[in-house]
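Dear colleague,

Following up on yesterday's call, I've attached the two folding results inline so they're easy to grep. Please treat them as preliminary; we haven't cross-checked anything against experimental data yet. The first protein's sequence and structure tokens come first.
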Amino acid sequence: MAGKAEKKIWDEEMRSLFKQLEPELKPGDMCIASELRPRLFRFWDISQKIFSLMGDDMLVASPNDSNSTEQLIAVLPNNALEVRKQAIFMGIQPNTVINCVQTEEGQVQLQLMSGDIMYLYKQNEKFLNFSFYSKTDGSGDTCSFESAQFPGWFLSTSSEAHKPIGLSQKGGPENILFHFQRIY
């Protein structure tokens, strides 16, 4: 029970992250950049499905059992956007970032893309397609991630196992609330 009392709600985790990584020096200053590391989190949806990597380019929601390899998610603040909205970059270390795109047919979707989350952070640019507004949603134990590029679209999981993690709007059959645990 002692560990439960120490657990922070998502908004507290983000305030701590933004405070720790407040830009103190000019962008590109090497002495601060060398000390930076993303925070690592494990996420699972309200149906207890964890994030797993399928192949090199698909993030899926898998049952939390011995056959699933959980994927930790790296998180860094996007200080180029309004800080009070808690805009973050999310990625899979060491070289994959989560991107929001729109297909030629107009469908909004999530895409894993080769790239360095530290590069996004250090540029101090908006990078809306790589940014999510994060917030405590529902109770202090859950959070949601809204695409900065596509307002109203949230990181989501299907009610079915082993389906890709995507983007959906509130009120649909998809899960948009996530539990979290900070690993580092």
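Below is the second protein, in the same order (sequence, then structure):
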Amino acid sequence: MTSSSVPSVKLLINGEFVESRSTEWRNVVNPATQEVLARVPFATAEEMDAAVASAKEAFKTWRKTPIGARSRIFFKYQQLIRENIKELAALLTAEQGKTLPDAEGDVFRGLEVVEHATSIGNLQMGELANNVANGVDTYTLMQPLGVCAGITPFNFPAMIPLWMFPMAIATGNTFVLKPSEQDPLVTMRLVELALEAGVPKGVLNVIHGGVDAVNLICDHPDIKAVSFVGSTKVGTHVYNRATQNGKRAQCMMGAKNHAIVLPDANKQQTLNNLLGASFGAAGQRCMALPVVILVGEAQTWLPDLIERTKTLKINGGTEPGTDIGPVISCAALDRVNSLIASGIEEGAKLELDGRNPSVPGYQDGNFVGPTIFSNVTAQMSVYREEIFGPVLCVMQAASLSEAIEIINANPNGNGTALFTRSGAAARHFQEEIDVGQVGINVPIPVPVPLFSFSGSRASKLGDLGPYGKQVVTFYTQTKTITQRWFDEDDDVGAVNTTITLK
């Protein structure tokens, strides 16, 4: 297929989908087949500036739009997403590789945030204290910031954009979105549906690109806040550059999540949960479970874990019954394979080798099967690096306290889990573990949108997380007003030169 016959991904500027004039393009490739699905532009500086200018102009009227009108747009939007979820999932699978059921889950978890945005009338309420002094009231307003921006990763091209722009727009801001250049198609379809739901022109804009687009978002004086999800390297760059330019920033970054298995845990349920969390989405989740610590007698479960893992089916994401699809790119496949090789070289025991699997009909796909290492130590690359592939490292500990020490010594603090029947052990774990999101018999403890994503330590920069209550605070400026109204016949009294109100 020639480049001229491949559809081009458009920019969204001031409510119009426009063809970029860029001379730099990248192919969007199906990772299961290497088929070129589309080509995406790296927007020019002029195009990116136009998107920000459009958002700035739209903010003048959008910020004054009644909160009920904003809310009704998101009621319509959630309906449109539900009606088109099969189409959205198919697009996502084609460009990202995850299985169709997992792709639907990706869309659905984003849909939950859209549903949360419909409640903005209750979420964006200020506070009032009546008569704080003689005839004086104090109250707060939660007002929108202006133009906000989001930079999203390849692994959740539906969910993470939906973490960002619905809540930003619902709170009265306008938005510039930069989706991953690796898989922007489902994101753009979601943007089309947002316009169909009634998002006015200029309120939502989309640019595409790489480093230049990221830096423009960090530097542009008209952008007031930046949301980011992605790698630690890029997230640290975004946070430092954006905050140095006076912007608010929230950056959700790398992870190395651990699960502890105590001997009293329900064995079959635990093994099923471990497999799903470790190998689902081919391990390409920031909340994946790449490390399991077996405590005491639970160490005898390793053979059962290996045998059950062998039953997982590797195939194209559209094939029925598939458990593990391809990783996103040839470069990602090479990186995963090199880290597996490093584990062998550094002394870990390769219990199950998933390299170079045979996948009939998908000989050119970026496939790596589930891989398990035992005898892993904290000094090994397979432990220290975020692999972002279906590779599970199994460690051992003599006690719960020893396992907690291993986790707390890791610099990342995104998510963790404990499998046990003991309430006392669970309470001890949740109190002593230094990780933002904790699961008890739940392997991927991503909170529902009533709460905020709360990764910690090296996994997060910025005080406030995406969605939930925290993001309403992130996307708004609190204005505190103290007022007094005098009756016409009040005795004003003498001049007061103190700082107190009487």
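For the second protein, one point worth flagging: The two ends are 79 Å apart (CA to CA).

Best wishes,
A.L.
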